[in-house]
Specification:
Layout: E1 33-36, E2 39-42, H1 60-70, H2 73-79, E3 88-89, E4 92-93, E5 107-108, E6 121-123, E7 134-135, E8 138-141, H3 150-154, H4 159-175, E9 180-181, H5 205-220, E10 225-231, E11 244-246, H6 249-256, H7 258-267, E12 271-274, E13 278-279, E14 282-283, H8 288-298, E15 304-307, H9 316-320, H10 327-333, H11 343-355, H12 360-375, H13 391-405, E16 407-411, E17 423-427, H14 452-458, E18 462-463, H15 465-489, H16 506-515, E19 518-524, H17 535-539, H18 543-558, E20 562-568, E21 584-587, H19 595-603, E22 617-618, E23 640-642, H20 651-657, E24 661-663, E25 674-681, E26 689-698, E27 707-713, E28 725-731, E29 740-748, H21 749-752, E30 754-756, E31 761-764, E32 767-776, E33 779-782, E34 785-788, E35 792-796
Parallel strand pairs: 6-9, 9-10, 10-12, 11-13, 11-23, 12-15, 17-18, 17-19, 19-20, 20-21
Antiparallel strand pairs: 1-2, 3-4, 5-6, 7-8, 13-14, 16-21, 22-24, 25-26, 26-29, 27-28, 27-32, 30-31, 31-35, 32-33, 32-34
């Protein structure tokens, strides 16, 4: 087993170490019961009579209104803010401070004891619940399952599987006494250098939205909540609290909001988290057009909006300066809950309530929404959580999800799967320090990570003991040095850097080539909050890594042996310059705590890889459409960034402008082959909707699954359009050789429409549309057509996101 670097998540903004506290075992107190006419009610406030809000027979809104009417202005002001960071007084650590009933949770809401309104618990994160695993004076442990990171889950393209992962996550959330999981994260991969891309799902909003909806639906089956984040356009970590992003309304609606719209409409998350950044000069947490007009009025969202932690503050200096964020603008915009909550914000809210800058109706509405969240929480329901979730069962789900999300980029001459009992030479320091997940709020405190050497041994392969003896002490020291460097250079704020490679001699490599059947080289990358990645020695491989791949390839191919490269990464790395030197390339992503086992399942052929890329792998970084304006200007300390690429993000750019990729969006190989034998459209003209049925056949010799991607090419006469856009996708069951399955997709006018600024509407223009049933964005198999007889206004909205500068956007 290997352990990965751990950090105190809830302090990702602050240069302080976490405090260790004494925590007593928690028992949920049971308030007095009242029985009236055969009905039993909970007397939350202990006044020995049935209040309106205690009567569950009444409509929820009536109960909430009664509660709001009983609250004082001081209670309301406190209720609109969190209670601070557990274990801290404001932002300063307090030795011995109690961290709350779930140590390591990110925060809580405000309790009103006299009304029987408890504080509910909010905790990270996207790859699994993040809480403190050990508690002083307590022999029990509170480890959580580290599931595959977002890029890995999305690469499965399997919404059913992602829902199962969500159900497992929600089990741990509920049984550890947490009410709301601060996940999933679904921001768009605008640029491959974003430090949190591993948490996110895709460069495409349909993939992002559908996967997020599946995750929310899974988690919330447990009766706990989610918080989809970061709403919206949180696409970089550099100066994330203060960066002003200049974005057109069309790009916002088609790319950076469409994913959230899908998630809201298809899963009804309990909460939405507003992002740190500004859009066109205004913080997202203070944008009424975003949080009320679009989210609530257009999309029909009913839950609460909370800020990201310290959202609306420009940076640490303003947080530490004893000032409040612009609470008036935030509350008036529809940002109900300010997290983690500062005493200065409470004071500012009280003052605003007194002077009328926030109307009573607004306060009561926002308080009421938070009350609705609290009333349906497990804590309010007095759920007796066990502190014993199904960790063993959840680990199995994690393993299955990790294997299904792995993407086979190359498999020349059937290099994989590897035959059992073969000898394997493991190269690369990451082979011995496998990375299960990223850092920051996307990290999980798991009990173990299965190492690659251990897993291969369990899978009946034989590792090269000479190499292992050299690598293990080197890798351990390299990891220890990396931990020490980060602690010295910024602690939890330190930027992850890759580990250096062991300098093997030609004799070492040649000996391994003679003694082993396969070479497996692992290339690792890690990243996290507060920092974006770099081009050199991160996106691009380092000189030592390139030398390792070259030297191993030369030696093993001279012996007619196969070379396999594993990419243990959270996001995109450059592959074009070295991929010819590998016989097989498998993107293992950061696959969670069952990492080694999941990799072994795929390498051995126990699992046929069926993952496909949810982002493009460019030939070089300079080909990325946002490369020239990421992370913004001025370059050394950016204050603003302009999205000049507009809607041409990822494959929309590469396909439209004819720019070659190393591996295209949607690509992924298999140990078998698939034929798209038939496609049928329900009509030749779109009226309300049109159904597309695609028949897929396993034409190979191995059982496997196939992802069918449905792209649509529009006429593009009345407005510029990408060459094609993904509109739907589906995944087959495990098809046996020769077996068929029919996948059915339904497209509506809104699905094929584009946002037209001049009309403030989603418009499906008239003309001929081509549907592409495809195995990737560059591999269309069947291409039927349909027409739209006349212009269709799929949805009329109002103009939002007035620009604060002139944006000259890219066009074909």
């Amino acid at each position: 087993m290997t352990n990965k670097l751990k950090y105190a998540k809830t302090l990702w903004l602050l240069p302080f170490a976490a405090v260790t506290v004494q925590v007593k075992a928690h028992t949920v107190p049971q308030p007095r019961q009242i029985t009236i006419n055969g009905f039993t009610f909970t007397d939350f406030n202990g006044n020995n009579r049935l209040d309106v809000y205690e009567d569950y027979r009444l409509p929820l809104q009536q109960r909430i209104n009664d509660l709001v009417s009983q609250m004082t202005d001081d209670e309301k002001a406190h209720f609109l803010c969190g209670t601070g960071m557990p274990g801290f007084d404001g932002i300063t650590p307090v030795a011995g401070a109690v961290q709350g009933r779930v140590p390591g949770a990110a925060g809580t809401t405000y309790a009103i004891d006299r009304l029987g309104i408890p504080a509910i618990i909010l905790a990270d994160g996207p790859a699994g619940l993040r809480i403190q695993p050990k508690r002083e004076g307590d022999t029990n442990t509170y480890y959580c399952t580290a599931f595959p990171v977002g890029t890995a889950l999305a690469s499965s393209w399997n919404t059913t599987l992602v829902t199962q992962v969500g159900m497992a996550m929600g089990n741990e959330v509920k049984e550890y006494g947490v009410d709301v999981l601060l996940a999933p994260a679904l921001n768009i991969h605008r640029n491959p250098l974003c430090g949190r891309n591993f948490e996110y799902y895709s460069e495409d909003p349909v993939v992002s939205g559908k996967i997020a909806a599946a995750m929310v639906n899974g988690i919330q089956t447990n009766g706990v909540g989610t918080s989809i984040k970061h709403f919206a356009a949180n696409n970089q970590e550099t100066n994330r609290l203060s960066i002003n992003e200049h974005i057109s309304e069309r790009a916002m609606r088609e790319i950076y909001l469409r994913n959230f719209e899908i998630a809201v409409r298809e899963s009804e998350p309990w909460t939405v988290m507003s992002s740190y950044n500004l859009v066109n000069g205004t913080y997202t947490s203070a944008r009424k057009d975003l949080l009320t007009d679009i989210l609530r009025t257009e999309w029909g969202y009913k839950g609460i909006v909370m800020t990201d932690w310290f959202g609306g503050y420009a940076g640490f200096e303003s947080i530490a300066g004893g000032k409040a964020s612009n609470v008036v603008a935030q509350e008036n915009a529809g940002n109900d809950l300010l997290m983690p909550g500062m005493k200065e914000q409470v004071a500012a809210l009280l003052q605003a309530m007194k002077n009328g800058s926030i109307k009573k109706e607004t306060v009561d509405q926002n308080v009421g929404r938070i009350l609705e969240l609290v009333l349906k929480s497990p804590t309010m329901q007095k759920y007796q959580y066990s502190n014993k979730p199904n960790l063993s069962g959840n680990a199995e789900i994690s393993r299955a999800a990790a294997a299904e999300g792995m993407v086979l980029l190359k498999n020349a001459e059937g290099a994989l799967p590897m035959a059992a009992k073969k000898k394997v030479a493991l190269f690369g320091v990451t082979s011995y320090q496998f990375i299960s997940g990223g850092t920051g709020s996307g990290d999980v405190n798991e009990a173990y990570t299965v190492s690659l050497p251990d897993a291969l041994q369990l899978a009946n392969f034989k590792a090269d003991n000479k190499l292992t003896a050299k690598y293990i002490p080197f890798a351990a020291k390299a990891q220890a040095d990396e931990i020490a460097r980060r602690e010295k250079e910024g602690g939890i704020l330190g930027q992850p850097k890759r580990l250096p490679e062991l300098n093997l001699t030609p004799a070492d490599i040649n000996d391994a080539a003679q003694q082993n059947d396969y070479a497996v080289i692992t290339i690792g990358r890690n990243s996290g909050e507060q920092h974006d990645r770099t081009v050199d020695n991160d996106f691009n491989l380092g000189a030592d890594e390139l030398k390792l791949i070259n030297d191993v390839s030369v030696a093993f191919r001279a012996q007619k042996k196969k070379v396999v490269v594993l990419l243990n990464v959270g996001g995109v790395v450059e592959t074009e310059s070295w991929k010819a030197k590998a016989d097989a390339i498998l993107v293992a992503w950061q696959p969670g705590q069952e990492a080694g086992n999941a990799v072994a399942d795929v390498l051995s052929g126990k699992i046929n890889p069926s993952g496909k890329l949810t982002m493009s792998f460019p030939v070089k970084y300079e080909d990325v459409p946002s490369a020239k304006n990421f992370p913004g200007t001025p370059k050394d300390n950016p204050t603003e960034v302009t999205y000049t690429e507009g809607i041409y993000v990822g494959y929309r750019y590469y396909n439209t402008f004819g720019v070659k990729t190393s591996y295209p969006f949607g690509y992924g190989a298999s140990y078998t082959t698939f034929e798209y034998t038939a496609i049928k459209a329900s009509a030749k003209t779109l009226t309300d909707n049109i159904t597309i049925a695609v028949t897929v056949k396993n034409s190979g010799k191995t059982a496997g699954k196939e992802v069918v991607q449905l792209y649509v090419s529009a006429p593009g006469k009345s407005m510029h359009k990408p060459k094609q856009e993904l509109k739907a996708f589906g995944k087959t069951k495990l098809l046996q050789p020769g077996e068929n399955e029919v996948l059915t997709f339904t497209l509506s006018a809104k699905d094929i429409a584009s946002f037209q600024d001049g009309k403030s509407a989603w418009v499906a223009e008239p003309g001929l549309y081509t549907v592409k049933a495809a195995a990737s964005s560059q591999d269309a198999r069947k291409t039927p057509t349909f027409t739209v007889a006349k212009e269709s206004i799929a949805e009329k909205v109002h103009h939002r996101f007035a620009t604060d500068v002139t944006i000259k956007e890219l066009r074909p």
